[in-house]
Amino acid sequence: MDKYSATVLGATGLVGKALVNQLCADERYESVTCLIRAPLKRHDYQDPQAKIQPLVIDFDYLQDYQGYFSVQHVYCCLGTTMKKAGSKKAFRRVDFEFVHVCAQLARMQRATSFVWISSIGANAKSKNFYLRVKGELENAILTMPQLPNAAAVRPPLLMGERDDQRFAEELGLKLSKWISPLMQGPLAKYRPVTANHVASQMIKLQVF
């Protein structure tokens, strides 16, 4: 069996944790490099084979860590909220600029494939700022030359316990529990999903 190496950005988030745990359990992977802002909480991860290689970095200087993108698979789970970012400019800095730089570094280091988290409804022409940024990012990455194996997952609301409280998402999840049974056919894609579901989708999009 061929062995693969992966680099994960955003490993401490809801999806990032689920993704890293799935990669650790996947026999195809021999190493999982996690580029992070703060040290990992080891109790969040099941890593019996010691695959995880954590590295605390300064995301304002991502280019300084380009060597860590010299892997087969790059996973980007970076993302924030308007409340946490504090401004549209700061939000775009994380959700567009950081992710775009990661894609550029994956291309420069000839990673086999690059997968990141977008959002359902992403549209560069949307009047909604969040969805517009996500859409602009999709356009920027998917048209990037010499990065043929790039793919985005577009989840709706995510179910799971977060370290930070997100009132709007929590309200949306409570409401969705009542209307989910009615979400049939074209509306089924708007049903809330788990972080594990999104993580497994990301792995399926990689090129093995």
Would you spell out the secondary-structure blueprint of this structure?
Layout: E1 4-9, H1 14-25, E2 29-36, E3 52-56, E4 73-76, H2 82-85, H3 88-108, E5 113-117, H4 129-142, E6 150-153, E7 158-159, H5 167-179, E8 193-194, H6 195-205
Parallel strand pairs: 1-2, 1-4, 2-3, 4-5, 5-6, 7-8
Helix pairs in contact: 1-6, 3-4
CATH topology: Rossmann fold
H/E topology pattern: EHEEEHHEHEEHEH
Fraction of residues in helices?
25-40%
Number of helices: 6
- Which structural class is indicated by helix and strand composition? alpha/beta
**What is the average of the pLDDT values?**
88
Q: Rg from C-alpha positions?
A: 17 Å
General shape: globular
Oligomer: single chain
CATH architecture: 3-Layer(aba) Sandwich
Poorly predicted residue ranges: 172-176
The CATH H-level superfamily is NAD(P)-binding Rossmann-like Domain
What is the straight-line distance between the termini?
A: 11 Å
Number of strands: 8
Strand content: 15-25%
Overall structural domain count: 1
Strand order of the largest sheet: 3-2-1-4-5-6
CATH class: Alpha Beta
Folded structure, characterized:
The protein has 208 residues and is of the alpha/beta class. The chain has a single domain, classed as NAD(P)-binding Rossmann-like Domain (Rossmann fold, 3-Layer(aba) Sandwich), CATH 3.40.50.720. The chain has six helices and eight strands; from the N terminus they run βαβββααβαββαβα. It has a six-stranded parallel sheet with strand order 3-2-1-4-5-6, with helices on both faces. Strand 1, helix 1 and strand 2 form a beta-alpha-beta unit. The N and C termini lie close together (11 Å). About 2% of the residues have low confidence.
